[in-house]
């Protein structure tokens, strides 16, 4: 009797739960009955599940291309050249700044219309000097031991040619800028030769080398601009022009040679 009552109770419970919404069955009574979901609900349920990584992988970000070039290290000779170049460039810009500083007062007393030109040239030379001061400090290159000598010589040259008049001052500028322009051209040719050799070997050129080439080109062009301005202001009318030109250019060549070495 007890067994029959249990069976009757189970049948009644089974009929009752079948009337309940089926998703509730899945949650409350998963072991009493197994009901298949309609096709559209089964698909919706499946679509809400995250895709398997093996069947629908997430898009991968593009991989960075690996460069096949290696950065070319500088040789001992190349490092020595750069140290020498920065040292002499700083000395040259020091001299140019001092020349314009001491030429300007006597020139402006007799030719006040040249104020803007003299200020413009002096300001550019001061920027060049600051540029190479920064490079020397950054790369720990010592200045030339001739620094005090060039300071005195450039000051005297600027003051002396300024007293001789506009034409002599401009002849001085022409001579100095001619040698400085040639000097920068030589440095640019050397560095471009290095770059070409590295590229032919499939080596990567250091950004600092490329940047130095651009700086030297810009400064060279500004120096040659000063040369043109000087010629336009009567440099070749100086008396005696040939003597002034020859002496000043020879002095510049000697100063460059010494500053590169000491």
Short description:
The protein is mainly α.
Task: Describe the protein in words.
The protein is an all-alpha fold. Helix content is 74%, strand content 0%. The protein has helices at 2-18, 22-28, 39-47, 76-110, 115-139, 147-164, 166-200, 207-232, 241-261. α4 (76-110) packs parallel to α6 and α4 (76-110) packs antiparallel against α7. 23% of the residues are buried. The model is unreliable at 20-48 and 50-59 (pLDDT under 50).
Features:
262 residues; 9 helices; single chain; mainly alpha
Number of E strands: 0
Major sheet = none
Please state roughly what percent of the residues sit in beta strands, choosing from under 5%, 5-15%, 15-25%, 25-35%, 35-45% or over 45%.
Answer: under 5%
What is the global morphology?
Answer: elongated
What's the gyration radius in Å?
42 Å
- For the termini, the CA-CA separation is 122 Å
Mean pLDDT score:
82
Category by helix and strand content: mainly alpha
Number of helices: 9
Low-confidence regions: 20-48, 50-59
Mind sketching the topology for me?
Elements (H helix, E strand, L loop, with lengths): L1 H17 L3 H7 L10 H9 L28 H35 L4 H25 L7 H18 L1 H35 L6 H26 L8 H21 L1
Helix pairs in contact: 4-5, 4-6, 4-7, 4-9, 5-8, 6-7, 7-8, 7-9
């Amino acid at each position: 009797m007890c067994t029959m009552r249990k069976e009757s109770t189970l049948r009644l419970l089974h009929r009752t739960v079948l009337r309940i919404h089926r998703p509730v069955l899945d949650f409350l009574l998963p072991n009493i009955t197994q009901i298949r979901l309609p096709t559209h609900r089964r698909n919706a349920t499946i679509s809400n599940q995250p895709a398997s990584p093996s069947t629908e992988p997430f898009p991968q970000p593009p991989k960075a291309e690996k460069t096949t070039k290696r950065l070319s290290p500088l040789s001992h000779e190349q490092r020595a050249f750069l140290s020498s170049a920065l040292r002499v460039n700083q000395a040259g810009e020091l001299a140019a700044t001092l020349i314009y500083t001491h030429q300007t007062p006597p020139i402006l007393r007799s030719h006040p219309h040249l104020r803007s030109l003299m200020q413009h040239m002096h300001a550019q030379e001061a920027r060049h000097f600051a540029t190479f001061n920064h490079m020397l400090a950054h790369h720990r290159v010592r200045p030339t031991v001739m620094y005090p000598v060039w300071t005195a010589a450039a000051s005297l040259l600027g003051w002396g040619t300024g007293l001789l008049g506009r034409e002599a001052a401009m002849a001085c500028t022409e001579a100095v800028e001619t040698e400085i322009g040639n000097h920068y051209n030589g440095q640019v040719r050397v560095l471009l030769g290095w770059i070409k050799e590295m590229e032919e070997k499939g080596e990567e050129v250091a950004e600092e080398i490329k940047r130095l080439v651009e700086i030297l080109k810009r400064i060279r062009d500004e120096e040659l601009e000063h040369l043109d301005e000087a010629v336009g202001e009567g440099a070749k009318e100086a008396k005696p022009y040939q003597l002034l030109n020859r002496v000043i250019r020879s002095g510049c060549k000697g100063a460059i040679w010494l500053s590169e070495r000491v």
